[in-house]
Design goal:
By secondary structure, the protein is of the alpha/beta class. Helices cover 38% and strands 11% of the residues. It has five helices and four strands. It has a four-stranded parallel beta sheet, sandwiched between helices. It starts with 7 loop residues before the first helix and ends with a helix. The relative contact order is 0.14.
């Protein structure tokens, strides 16, 4: 049986690639999930579930659809504002769909500044981002899920 001796530089590159892949997978696993307020769940129910399932301080994402967006408004009731603040203090990221801002179902002037707008998939025939690119130009990876499955679900919901 012959052994292959790899040059030191190749071993270093291989080790770095393996560790890089492990670290990326670990960050997605350490991250909390994506929760959606709307689609049958109130903001309160989605927020409380997210907080209960992410007690360890993992970053999690709460997408709010227009029919449940009262808690995201500057003029939210005191109870809604307290729950919103608990989500933010619990390392939650508050998301809304960019399309809901574009079509005026949500008015950005009435929303708290912590809101992060998220784009859905481009319409058929519109320019598509390269297949190797997870994010659109201008999107901050720190405000979006590291998990490809969660990001796909988020984009599908916002399309």
């Amino acid at each position: 049986m012959a052994f292959v001796t790899w040059p030191r530089c190749c071993r270093t590159v291989l080790l770095a690639a393996c560790l890089g892949g492990w670290a990326a997978g670990a960050s997605a696993r350490d991250e909390g999930g994506l929760y959606i307020a709307g689609e049958g769940f109130s903001f309160q129910a989605a927020a409380e579930r997210a907080l209960a399932q992410n007690r360890g301080g993992q970053r999690f994402f709460l997408l709010t659809l227009p029919d449940q967006a009262a808690a995201l408004r500057i003029q939210a009731s005191p109870a809604q504002a307290r729950l919103r603040q608990r989500v933010l203090a619990g390392n939650g990221v508050l998301l809304v769909c960019q399309r809901d801002l574009d079509n005026r179902r949500l008015n950005p002037a009435t929303l708290v500044p912590e809101i992060v707008p998220v784009r859905g998939w481009p319409a058929a025939g519109a320019p598509q981002p390269p297949a190797s690119q997870r994010l659109f130009a201008g999107e901050d990876p720190a405000t979006l899920p590291a998990s490809d499955a969660a990001l796909r679900r988020l984009r599908a919901t916002c399309s």
